[in-house]
Known about the structure:
The chain has two domains: 1-376, no CATH class; 377-416. The protein has helices spanning 38-47, 53-56, 58-67, 70-92, 108-118, 155-158, 164-190, 208-213, 255-262, 264-268, 291-300, 306-309, 312-316, 318-328, 337-340, 377-390, 400-416, and strands at 4-10, 20-25, 122-127, 145-152, 195-198, 218-219, 225-226, 234-241, 279-281, 284-286, 342-344, 355-357. 41% of the residues lie in helices and 13% in strands. By secondary structure, the protein is an alpha+beta fold. Helix 3 (58-67) packs parallel to helix 11 (291-300) and helix 4 runs parallel beside helix 7 (164-190). The radius of gyration is 23 Å and the shape is globular. The longest helix is centred in the middle third of the chain and has 27 residues, at 164-190. A four-stranded antiparallel sheet has the order 3-4-8-5. The protein has a two-stranded antiparallel ribbon with strand order 1-2. It has 17 helices and twelve strands.
Amino acid sequence: xxxxxxxxxxxxxxxxxxxxxxxxxxxxxxxxxxxxxxxxxxxxxxxxxxxxxxxxxxxxxxxxxxxxxxxxxxxxxxxxxxxxxxxxxxxxxxxxxxxxxxxxxxxxxxxxxxxxxxxxxxxxxxxxxxxxxxxxxxxxxxxxxxxxxxxxxxxxxxxxxxxxxxxxxxxxxxxxxxxxxxxxxxxxxxxxxxxxxxxxxxxxxxxxxxxxxxxxxxxxxxxxxxxxxxxxxxxxxxxxxxxxxxxxxxxxxxxxxxxxxxxxxxxxxxxxxxxxxxxxxxxxxxxxxxxxxxxxxxxxxxxxxxxxxxxxxxxxxxxxxxxxxxxxxxxxxxxxxxxxxxxxxxxxxxxxxxxxxxxxxxxxxxxxxxxxxxxxxxxxxxxxxxxxxxxxxxxxxxxxxxxxxxxxxxxxxxxxxxxxxxxxxxx
Length: 427
């Protein structure tokens, strides 16, 4: 039996449940939250500010539906239609006046209790760190306190990943979360304060660092927030406010070190997109995700989510996993098919590999599979034009050349005006 280093006590999974004690083995103790070098975070935020996926990777965001399945494209339209009204409401929420009279008293517990009553799994408070705000959203964020809200995604649907059922669980959670966020804003306004909802989908900042700061989890090897009750199976949302609240503190759940022992998500990633060893990236020590190897799999195999599905914290929860590790020195569930097996279905992508892959088995893809459009919409437009003119014979008359130039001009105009860009991060 291993020695317990400390015990983390968290509220129960559901409202009214007893608190849960999570023992953290001494050998898995690191630091509260995750290791960071604030000076480096400051530097990268200043010199290389973060961009939203819809901006930084806009080219592949537009490309992805073209290689997705027909059911996925159909669902995208349905989901976008369901979410579109909420984006306008969320973007305008920060301008709404308070409806109640402020007392000046700390309202942390009132907000947390209301969030739990609405069904949120986790809620915590921290500063809304400006270093993580996306460059084009900086003028949008109005308030300095961040209420971090995590809503659990259905377990059974998630365990079917990659599948349309898992994607319905994923994006269906967003459709529940959007109106809940607006209800939270209304509640805070009734207390006499203003609030602004960010997400789901249309986030104003990278959310995970603030959830870590609020003590709601730690960054996992899969690049996602691992929460104590549900692992990465949570959809994240932030509400900023001017209400007087007390900040929570980061917590060491043992995940930062546990992931290095576990490595299940790293071993089972179909695209080999997860790095085995941690590196320092933008001032944070983490297992760096290789985007260009992850994205093609996500687009073609219905969101993939295998790294979420095979995580022991997701399947069993932190208390059970840590107690097992203390008793045995072993990662619960690691090795057998029950945790590590998955199926890439034929209807996911008939052009590429499909079938069942058990422990130690991974699909293989050719180089073409990983060739995706790169960069912003401007870069993709220029690259497409270069491809067109590079095929021309400069010695021959080519009336199509002028048309290509006109098409290039019209596309640039569309891009500059921001036409066709949605707040949705689907695909």
